[in-house]
Structures are given as C-alpha cells and as structure tokens.
Amino acid sequence: MSNAGLTIFDGALLRSIDLNLPELEHGVTGAQLLEISESKVSESLSGLSLPPHIKEAAISRVSAGDDVSFRRAELNREQASEKLGVFVSAVADALTDTPVVVSILDGSTLKLILEDEDDFAMLAENLFTDLDEEDKGKLPKSQIRKALSLMGAEMGVPPLSDFPILDNIIKKHDADGDEELGQAQFAELLQPILQEIADVLHEKPITIVQNVEIFNGSKLRKILADEKTLKCLVEKMVKDNQGRADLIKNLMIENGKELGLPPLSSENESVALLYETIQSQLNKRDKETSDASTEEEFMDALKDILGRFAELLESTPVYSATTL
Predict the structure, then answer these.
(1) Which GO terms label this protein's molecular function in UniProt (predicted)?
(2) Fold of the domain built from segment(s) 107-204
C-alpha cells in the first residue's frame, strides 16, 4: 500500500510471490539459496533491503536455528524450492505482525507546510505549547532540536541518525544554547531551519524505513482468553502490601508489551488519552479491586479493566513507528 512517497509493506505482497527458482544446472548451497531468497523478496518489495531483524528471523526459520550448517549444506532443486517458500513465508509473517513503512523524504511535505502561513503558524504554536511544559511562555533555543524530533518523518523531518547534516543546519542558524525565546521568536527561528531542511532534501532525498506496531486490542484479547498466561503475569507482579488496584496499574505499565498495550511513554496524544480513561475507571473501582477477598474476584476485576482497554483499542487503534 502506498501514498505520496510513503509505502506500507505488510506481507500481503509476498503471499503470492513466484516461488520458481532460476534454472540450476546443479544443486545449490544453503548460502546461495539465502542470497536467491533475499533477492526475490527484495524485488517483490520494490527493492527494499530486508531489515536485519526480519532477515535474521527468516534465516533462523529456514535453517532451524543452525545457520552455519545450513549455509554449507547442498540442496537439490526440490529442497531449495521448499526452503525458498519457508523463507518467504517467514518474511511475510514478520511483516504481517509488524509492518514496515518506507518514506521518501524529498522536502515536499515541508514546502507545503511553509507555503501556507496559517499551517506553519499553527504548527509552530502547537510545538511551542507541547514543549513549554511549565507554561512559562519561554523556551530555550536548544528546544528547536526537540521540536524537529517531534515533527519526525511523518511531517518530513528525518531523524538525525539518517540526516547528520541536520546538526550543521541547526548550528548555522544559531539554534543552540540557553537563550530563551517567546512563541513568535521561536517560530521565526524554526521557519528558516525547516526551509533549509526542505531545500537539502529536495536536492538529495533520503529514504526512511520504520517498523509500525499496531495496537488494536487483538493481542490483549488473546491474553484475556488465556487465563493461565494472565495469572502468570499477575504472579510476577505480586508484592507485599500492594493494593489490588495498584497491582492492576503496575501490571499495565510494566507488562504492557506482553499485554499488547501501547507504551505509556509514547508521545502520541491518543495513547495518553487511553491511559487517562483507564486510570479514571481504575479510580472508580479502587475500593472494589482493593477489597476483592478472593483471587477469583480479583481476576474478574482485572479482566473487566483490561477488557475495557481492549474495546478502546478496537475502536481507536494506536500506531507506533520506530525508525530502523
């Protein structure tokens, strides 16, 4: 799936890939087959180089965990074809679980923002407000870096790791240091920096590859249906003198990934709202969960809270992108 310089690979393309091998006079080694497999998959994904973790997972499945021996093994055509299918399926499964987003940043998104005065003014105001956590009405110049990070690839600004010249651009515009700026001054400093970033990207676009985690409640539903797994998570969290409601809160925070919950530290506003909603429900049930006299009563209360979280994620899925 693609849209204006952004392509999402979720594994669907690989489900119908041609698994025919090129004509082989003789058999192939495992090492040669892995090269052929990676090339076929990359070709089907518009030339995308496989992210290391996906490539490693596919190799592990093909080799049954013995990479060294597999690379040395001699495979006939039938064996090679079978292993090719295993490799492709492994990559497709990985992309289905965690899709990859490929963004081509060429400055066009930033230029559109800068060309519309109202859009830029709103962007600068929102960034300033988000960064002015103490509501002082002032921010140090150094917060320009964080503002660019908040914009991210979604708004056309590449991360410093993929765009080292960004550091030079910031220094060129004297956007470092502790000198404090008001909102208007902050916007005046931000504008030429964004303009130069757009110009540099226009001359030399860069490609950003990101993992996308989708939190839609499906993993949480599976956990809720598996009481044994849920009890194991609870047992890991049990501490002396810890109230039942506190236990539920800590369970969600410390075992969120295992439960399929978006990270609480996420800067996504919808995530913060989800946790606020659940926190409010926990506060209302605080006495009930604290007074639950039996394990069964506590598990019922826990399932109810997590079930509500799953409903919220189903109705409003959360997406979290991580640059590879």
Answers:
(1) calcium ion binding
(2) Recoverin; domain 1 (1.10.238)
